[in-house]
Amino acid sequence: MRRVYLDHAATTPLDPRVFEAMLPLLREHFGNASSVHALGRKARFAVEESRERIAGALGAEPGEIIFTSGGTEADNAALRGLHRGERCGVVTSRAEHEAVLRVAERLAAEGVPVVTLTPEASGAVRPERVAEAITDETRLVSLMHANNEVGTLTDVRAVAEVCREKGVAFHTDAVQTAGLFRLSVDDLGVDALSFSAHKFYGPKGVGALYVRGGSDFRALIEGGAQERRRRAGTENVAAIVGMAEALALALAEADARLAHVADLRRRLYRLLREALGDRFVCNTPLEDEASAPHILNIAFPPREDRPVDGEMLLLNLDVEGICASSGSACTSGAVAPSHVLLALGRPPETAAAALRFSLGKDNTEADIDRTVETLAAIVHRMVGAP
Ligand code: PLP
To answer: What range does the domain containing 372 cover?
Structure first.
Protein backbone atom coordinates (compact mmCIF):
# COMPACT_ATOMS: atom_id res chain seq x y z
CA MET A 1 0.00 0.00 0.00
CA ARG A 2 1.41 3.37 -1.01
CA ARG A 3 1.48 5.73 1.95
CA VAL A 4 0.11 9.24 1.57
CA TYR A 5 2.06 11.60 3.80
CA LEU A 6 0.11 14.75 4.71
CA ASP A 7 1.93 15.67 7.91
CA HIS A 8 4.65 18.03 6.67
CA ALA A 9 4.02 20.51 9.48
CA ALA A 10 5.21 17.77 11.85
CA THR A 11 8.27 16.92 9.80
CA THR A 12 9.41 16.49 6.21
CA PRO A 13 11.45 13.71 4.58
CA LEU A 14 15.15 14.37 4.13
CA ASP A 15 15.81 15.57 0.58
CA PRO A 16 18.26 13.10 -1.05
CA ARG A 17 20.35 16.08 -2.25
CA VAL A 18 20.69 17.20 1.37
CA PHE A 19 21.68 13.70 2.41
CA GLU A 20 24.42 13.70 -0.25
CA ALA A 21 25.74 17.05 1.02
CA MET A 22 25.90 15.69 4.58
CA LEU A 23 27.64 12.41 3.84
CA PRO A 24 31.28 13.64 3.56
CA LEU A 25 30.96 15.26 6.99
CA LEU A 26 29.73 12.01 8.50
CA ARG A 27 32.33 9.86 6.76
CA GLU A 28 35.75 11.36 6.12
CA HIS A 29 35.49 14.92 7.50
CA PHE A 30 34.39 13.90 10.98
CA GLY A 31 36.60 16.29 12.95
CA ASN A 32 35.53 18.42 15.90
CA ALA A 33 35.18 21.99 14.66
CA SER A 34 37.12 23.20 17.72
CA SER A 35 40.20 21.06 16.97
CA VAL A 36 43.22 22.81 15.49
CA HIS A 37 44.36 19.96 13.21
CA ALA A 38 43.40 19.56 9.57
CA LEU A 39 40.24 17.54 10.23
CA GLY A 40 39.07 20.09 12.78
CA ARG A 41 39.76 22.92 10.36
CA LYS A 42 37.72 21.16 7.66
CA ALA A 43 34.79 20.89 10.09
CA ARG A 44 35.16 24.53 11.16
CA PHE A 45 35.21 25.62 7.54
CA ALA A 46 32.02 23.63 6.85
CA VAL A 47 30.24 25.18 9.86
CA GLU A 48 31.25 28.75 8.98
CA GLU A 49 30.47 28.33 5.30
CA SER A 50 27.01 27.04 6.27
CA ARG A 51 26.53 29.97 8.62
CA GLU A 52 27.34 32.37 5.77
CA ARG A 53 24.94 30.61 3.41
CA ILE A 54 22.11 30.67 5.97
CA ALA A 55 22.74 34.28 7.00
CA GLY A 56 22.85 35.30 3.33
CA ALA A 57 19.52 33.57 2.69
CA LEU A 58 17.87 35.57 5.50
CA GLY A 59 19.62 38.87 4.80
CA ALA A 60 21.45 38.57 8.15
CA GLU A 61 25.09 38.76 9.18
CA PRO A 62 26.83 35.43 9.91
CA GLY A 63 27.48 36.53 13.52
CA GLU A 64 23.74 36.88 14.03
CA ILE A 65 23.07 33.16 13.46
CA ILE A 66 23.32 30.83 16.48
CA PHE A 67 23.03 27.13 15.72
CA THR A 68 20.78 25.12 18.03
CA SER A 69 19.38 21.61 18.32
CA GLY A 70 16.15 22.71 16.60
CA GLY A 71 13.13 24.96 16.89
CA THR A 72 12.36 24.13 20.50
CA GLU A 73 15.81 25.13 21.69
CA ALA A 74 15.80 28.27 19.53
CA ASP A 75 12.47 29.35 21.06
CA ASN A 76 13.69 28.58 24.59
CA ALA A 77 16.92 30.47 23.93
CA ALA A 78 15.04 33.49 22.57
CA LEU A 79 12.72 33.79 25.53
CA ARG A 80 15.39 33.10 28.13
CA GLY A 81 18.17 34.99 26.38
CA LEU A 82 16.37 38.17 25.39
CA HIS A 83 14.01 38.98 28.26
CA ARG A 84 16.62 39.84 30.91
CA GLY A 85 17.30 43.13 32.61
CA GLU A 86 15.17 45.30 34.84
CA ARG A 87 12.66 45.70 32.11
CA CYS A 88 12.02 42.01 31.63
CA GLY A 89 8.32 41.49 30.75
CA VAL A 90 7.15 39.24 27.92
CA VAL A 91 4.06 39.51 25.69
CA THR A 92 2.99 36.39 23.80
CA SER A 93 -0.21 34.58 22.74
CA ARG A 94 -2.18 31.50 23.75
CA ALA A 95 -1.78 30.00 20.28
CA GLU A 96 2.03 29.77 20.41
CA HIS A 97 3.89 26.49 20.22
CA GLU A 98 4.59 24.82 23.57
CA ALA A 99 8.28 25.69 23.09
CA VAL A 100 7.28 29.30 23.75
CA LEU A 101 4.25 28.81 26.01
CA ARG A 102 5.93 26.53 28.55
CA VAL A 103 8.91 28.89 28.87
CA ALA A 104 6.57 31.88 29.27
CA GLU A 105 4.74 30.01 32.03
CA ARG A 106 8.03 29.22 33.73
CA LEU A 107 9.16 32.84 33.47
CA ALA A 108 5.85 33.97 34.98
CA ALA A 109 6.37 31.54 37.87
CA GLU A 110 9.82 33.09 38.36
CA GLY A 111 8.21 36.53 38.72
CA VAL A 112 8.57 37.88 35.18
CA PRO A 113 5.49 39.88 34.09
CA VAL A 114 3.99 37.86 31.23
CA VAL A 115 0.95 38.86 29.16
CA THR A 116 -0.59 36.03 27.13
CA LEU A 117 -2.97 37.42 24.52
CA THR A 118 -6.00 35.55 23.23
CA PRO A 119 -6.01 35.55 19.41
CA GLU A 120 -9.00 36.28 17.20
CA ALA A 121 -11.19 33.34 16.09
CA SER A 122 -9.02 33.20 12.93
CA GLY A 123 -5.89 32.68 15.00
CA ALA A 124 -4.49 36.12 14.21
CA VAL A 125 -3.22 38.48 16.89
CA ARG A 126 -3.94 42.05 15.86
CA PRO A 127 -0.99 44.47 16.11
CA GLU A 128 -3.20 46.93 18.05
CA ARG A 129 -3.70 44.29 20.74
CA VAL A 130 0.07 43.91 20.98
CA ALA A 131 0.47 47.68 21.31
CA GLU A 132 -2.10 47.74 24.15
CA ALA A 133 -0.38 44.88 25.96
CA ILE A 134 3.09 46.47 25.97
CA THR A 135 3.88 48.30 29.21
CA ASP A 136 6.98 49.98 30.65
CA GLU A 137 7.96 46.55 31.97
CA THR A 138 7.88 44.81 28.58
CA ARG A 139 11.19 43.73 27.11
CA LEU A 140 10.16 41.12 24.55
CA VAL A 141 7.21 40.23 22.32
CA SER A 142 7.12 36.67 20.98
CA LEU A 143 4.54 35.78 18.32
CA MET A 144 4.81 32.99 15.79
CA HIS A 145 4.88 33.70 12.05
CA ALA A 146 2.55 30.84 11.05
CA ASN A 147 0.63 28.78 13.54
CA ASN A 148 1.61 25.11 13.25
CA GLU A 149 -1.89 23.77 13.85
CA VAL A 150 -4.16 26.05 11.82
CA GLY A 151 -1.62 27.85 9.61
CA THR A 152 -2.77 31.40 10.44
CA LEU A 153 -0.14 34.02 9.65
CA THR A 154 0.78 36.86 12.00
CA ASP A 155 1.28 40.25 10.37
CA VAL A 156 4.90 40.19 11.48
CA ARG A 157 5.82 43.47 9.78
CA ALA A 158 3.04 45.35 11.56
CA VAL A 159 3.90 43.81 14.94
CA ALA A 160 7.57 44.64 14.35
CA GLU A 161 6.59 48.24 13.70
CA VAL A 162 4.67 48.39 16.98
CA CYS A 163 7.62 46.89 18.85
CA ARG A 164 10.08 49.30 17.27
CA GLU A 165 7.91 52.29 18.24
CA LYS A 166 7.66 51.02 21.80
CA GLY A 167 11.34 50.08 22.04
CA VAL A 168 10.83 46.38 22.78
CA ALA A 169 12.47 43.38 21.11
CA PHE A 170 10.40 41.15 18.83
CA HIS A 171 10.98 37.41 18.41
CA THR A 172 9.07 35.34 15.89
CA ASP A 173 8.93 31.57 15.72
CA ALA A 174 9.26 31.02 11.98
CA VAL A 175 9.55 27.25 12.21
CA GLN A 176 6.57 26.75 9.87
CA THR A 177 7.56 29.44 7.36
CA ALA A 178 11.36 29.41 7.04
CA GLY A 179 12.08 27.45 3.87
CA LEU A 180 8.48 27.95 2.71
CA PHE A 181 8.63 31.69 2.10
CA ARG A 182 11.71 33.75 1.24
CA LEU A 183 12.17 35.46 4.60
CA SER A 184 14.29 38.54 5.10
CA VAL A 185 14.91 39.59 8.70
CA ASP A 186 15.16 43.25 7.67
CA ASP A 187 12.01 43.18 5.61
CA LEU A 188 10.15 41.50 8.48
CA GLY A 189 11.78 43.88 10.97
CA VAL A 190 12.26 41.20 13.63
CA ASP A 191 14.97 41.15 16.31
CA ALA A 192 15.02 37.38 16.67
CA LEU A 193 13.73 34.49 14.57
CA SER A 194 13.68 30.72 15.19
CA PHE A 195 13.75 28.01 12.55
CA SER A 196 14.30 24.28 12.26
CA ALA A 197 15.80 22.26 9.39
CA HIS A 198 13.48 19.24 9.54
CA LYS A 199 10.51 21.38 8.48
CA PHE A 200 12.14 22.13 5.11
CA TYR A 201 13.53 18.74 4.03
CA GLY A 202 16.66 19.01 6.17
CA PRO A 203 17.79 16.78 9.03
CA LYS A 204 16.14 16.60 12.44
CA GLY A 205 17.81 17.95 15.57
CA VAL A 206 19.26 21.12 14.08
CA GLY A 207 17.93 24.65 13.85
CA ALA A 208 19.02 28.17 14.52
CA LEU A 209 18.14 31.39 16.23
CA TYR A 210 18.76 34.66 14.44
CA VAL A 211 19.55 37.48 16.90
CA ARG A 212 19.83 41.01 15.53
CA GLY A 213 23.25 42.43 16.35
CA GLY A 214 24.18 38.99 17.64
CA SER A 215 25.56 39.99 21.02
CA ASP A 216 22.88 41.27 23.41
CA PHE A 217 21.96 37.75 24.33
CA ARG A 218 22.54 35.41 27.24
CA ALA A 219 23.31 31.76 26.47
CA LEU A 220 20.75 29.12 27.38
CA ILE A 221 23.34 26.32 27.29
CA GLU A 222 26.68 27.06 28.91
CA GLY A 223 29.98 25.23 28.71
CA GLY A 224 32.49 25.56 25.88
CA ALA A 225 33.11 28.65 23.79
CA GLN A 226 31.21 27.44 20.70
CA GLU A 227 28.88 29.86 18.89
CA ARG A 228 30.80 32.75 20.46
CA ARG A 229 29.73 31.59 23.92
CA ARG A 230 26.08 31.89 22.98
CA ARG A 231 25.44 28.13 22.72
CA ALA A 232 27.93 25.66 24.14
CA GLY A 233 28.40 22.13 22.80
CA THR A 234 30.25 20.47 19.93
CA GLU A 235 28.63 21.52 16.67
CA ASN A 236 26.59 18.94 14.76
CA VAL A 237 28.59 19.67 11.63
CA ALA A 238 26.83 17.34 9.17
CA ALA A 239 23.40 18.55 10.32
CA ILE A 240 24.44 22.20 10.01
CA VAL A 241 25.71 21.58 6.49
CA GLY A 242 22.45 19.76 5.73
CA MET A 243 20.38 22.68 7.02
CA ALA A 244 22.30 25.16 4.84
CA GLU A 245 21.81 22.95 1.77
CA ALA A 246 18.12 22.37 2.54
CA LEU A 247 17.49 26.10 2.95
CA ALA A 248 19.31 26.92 -0.29
CA LEU A 249 17.23 24.33 -2.18
CA ALA A 250 14.01 25.53 -0.54
CA LEU A 251 14.65 29.10 -1.58
CA ALA A 252 15.70 28.17 -5.12
CA GLU A 253 12.48 26.17 -5.51
CA ALA A 254 10.22 28.35 -3.32
CA ASP A 255 7.93 29.68 -6.04
CA ALA A 256 7.15 26.27 -7.48
CA ARG A 257 6.76 24.64 -4.05
CA LEU A 258 4.43 27.39 -2.80
CA ALA A 259 2.24 27.32 -5.90
CA HIS A 260 2.09 23.52 -5.71
CA VAL A 261 0.96 23.27 -2.07
CA ALA A 262 -1.50 26.15 -2.53
CA ASP A 263 -3.06 24.34 -5.54
CA LEU A 264 -3.26 21.09 -3.60
CA ARG A 265 -4.85 22.80 -0.59
CA ARG A 266 -7.52 24.38 -2.80
CA ARG A 267 -8.24 20.96 -4.29
CA LEU A 268 -8.33 19.31 -0.86
CA TYR A 269 -10.78 21.87 0.52
CA ARG A 270 -13.03 21.78 -2.56
CA LEU A 271 -13.22 17.98 -2.63
CA LEU A 272 -13.82 17.79 1.12
CA ARG A 273 -16.76 20.18 0.81
CA GLU A 274 -18.10 18.19 -2.15
CA ALA A 275 -17.85 14.93 -0.22
CA LEU A 276 -18.81 16.05 3.28
CA GLY A 277 -20.87 19.20 2.81
CA ASP A 278 -21.12 21.20 6.01
CA ARG A 279 -20.32 18.19 8.19
CA PHE A 280 -17.00 19.87 9.09
CA VAL A 281 -15.87 23.36 10.02
CA CYS A 282 -12.68 24.84 8.60
CA ASN A 283 -10.26 26.18 11.22
CA THR A 284 -7.79 27.59 8.71
CA PRO A 285 -8.48 31.04 7.28
CA LEU A 286 -8.35 30.50 3.52
CA GLU A 287 -8.34 34.10 2.29
CA ASP A 288 -5.26 35.21 0.36
CA GLU A 289 -2.20 35.58 2.61
CA ALA A 290 -4.17 34.79 5.80
CA SER A 291 -2.45 31.44 6.30
CA ALA A 292 0.59 29.42 5.32
CA PRO A 293 -0.63 27.56 2.22
CA HIS A 294 0.53 24.09 3.26
CA ILE A 295 -1.84 23.70 6.23
CA LEU A 296 -5.55 22.84 6.30
CA ASN A 297 -7.20 22.21 9.66
CA ILE A 298 -10.78 20.98 9.80
CA ALA A 299 -12.94 19.77 12.69
CA PHE A 300 -16.12 17.78 13.11
CA PRO A 301 -18.53 19.38 15.57
CA PRO A 302 -20.73 16.97 17.55
CA ARG A 303 -23.89 15.83 15.80
CA GLU A 304 -27.08 15.33 17.78
CA ASP A 305 -24.90 15.88 20.84
CA ARG A 306 -22.68 12.92 19.91
CA PRO A 307 -19.03 14.03 19.89
CA VAL A 308 -16.75 12.82 17.10
CA ASP A 309 -13.56 11.10 18.21
CA GLY A 310 -10.72 12.89 16.38
CA GLU A 311 -8.17 10.26 17.36
CA MET A 312 -10.38 7.54 15.88
CA LEU A 313 -10.56 9.47 12.61
CA LEU A 314 -6.80 9.73 12.58
CA LEU A 315 -6.25 6.06 13.40
CA ASN A 316 -8.72 5.00 10.73
CA LEU A 317 -6.88 7.16 8.19
CA ASP A 318 -3.61 5.58 9.30
CA VAL A 319 -4.99 2.08 8.76
CA GLU A 320 -5.72 3.15 5.19
CA GLY A 321 -2.13 4.42 4.76
CA ILE A 322 -2.85 8.13 5.19
CA CYS A 323 -0.66 10.09 7.61
CA ALA A 324 -2.29 13.24 8.99
CA SER A 325 -2.40 14.79 12.41
CA SER A 326 -4.83 16.03 14.99
CA GLY A 327 -3.93 19.11 16.96
CA SER A 328 -4.53 17.21 20.16
CA ALA A 329 -1.70 16.31 22.45
CA CYS A 330 -1.69 13.01 24.23
CA THR A 331 -0.91 13.82 27.84
CA SER A 332 -0.72 11.10 30.50
CA GLY A 333 -2.63 8.68 28.30
CA ALA A 334 -5.61 11.03 27.84
CA VAL A 335 -6.19 12.99 24.65
CA ALA A 336 -6.46 16.69 25.46
CA PRO A 337 -8.18 19.00 22.98
CA SER A 338 -5.80 21.27 21.08
CA HIS A 339 -4.77 24.32 23.13
CA VAL A 340 -4.70 26.32 19.90
CA LEU A 341 -8.29 25.53 18.93
CA LEU A 342 -9.44 26.23 22.48
CA ALA A 343 -7.61 29.57 22.37
CA LEU A 344 -9.43 30.34 19.12
CA GLY A 345 -12.73 29.83 20.94
CA ARG A 346 -13.71 26.43 19.51
CA PRO A 347 -15.83 24.32 21.90
CA PRO A 348 -13.81 21.47 23.52
CA GLU A 349 -15.76 18.70 21.68
CA THR A 350 -14.99 20.35 18.33
CA ALA A 351 -11.36 21.04 19.29
CA ALA A 352 -10.99 17.34 20.13
CA ALA A 353 -12.31 16.33 16.71
CA ALA A 354 -9.82 18.18 14.51
CA LEU A 355 -7.67 16.93 11.66
CA ARG A 356 -4.67 18.78 10.31
CA PHE A 357 -3.50 18.03 6.79
CA SER A 358 -0.15 19.58 5.92
CA LEU A 359 1.08 19.36 2.37
CA GLY A 360 4.53 19.05 0.88
CA LYS A 361 6.41 19.42 -2.36
CA ASP A 362 6.13 15.74 -3.29
CA ASN A 363 2.37 15.34 -2.75
CA THR A 364 0.23 14.77 -5.83
CA GLU A 365 -3.37 15.39 -6.83
CA ALA A 366 -3.88 11.63 -6.57
CA ASP A 367 -2.81 11.83 -2.89
CA ILE A 368 -5.49 14.43 -2.27
CA ASP A 369 -8.19 12.52 -4.12
CA ARG A 370 -7.45 9.31 -2.24
CA THR A 371 -7.40 11.14 1.11
CA VAL A 372 -10.81 12.72 0.55
CA GLU A 373 -12.33 9.47 -0.68
CA THR A 374 -10.96 7.60 2.31
CA LEU A 375 -11.93 10.23 4.87
CA ALA A 376 -15.45 10.51 3.49
CA ALA A 377 -15.92 6.75 3.82
CA ILE A 378 -14.57 6.81 7.40
CA VAL A 379 -16.77 9.74 8.41
CA HIS A 380 -19.87 8.10 6.92
CA ARG A 381 -19.05 4.87 8.75
CA MET A 382 -18.34 6.59 12.07
CA VAL A 383 -20.89 9.34 12.22
CA GLY A 384 -23.36 8.77 9.40
CA ALA A 385 -23.86 10.38 6.02
CA PRO A 386 -23.89 14.19 5.75
N1 PLP B 1 7.67 25.93 16.73
C2 PLP B 1 6.76 25.52 15.83
C3 PLP B 1 5.78 26.50 15.27
C4 PLP B 1 6.73 24.18 15.40
O5 PLP B 1 5.82 23.78 14.52
C6 PLP B 1 7.68 23.28 15.96
C7 PLP B 1 7.66 21.85 15.59
O8 PLP B 1 6.63 21.23 15.50
C9 PLP B 1 8.61 23.77 16.88
C10 PLP B 1 8.58 25.09 17.24
C11 PLP B 1 9.66 22.87 17.48
O12 PLP B 1 10.67 22.63 16.54
P13 PLP B 1 11.62 21.35 16.71
O14 PLP B 1 10.80 20.15 16.35
O15 PLP B 1 12.74 21.57 15.75
O16 PLP B 1 12.10 21.33 18.12
So the answer is: 4-12+253-383
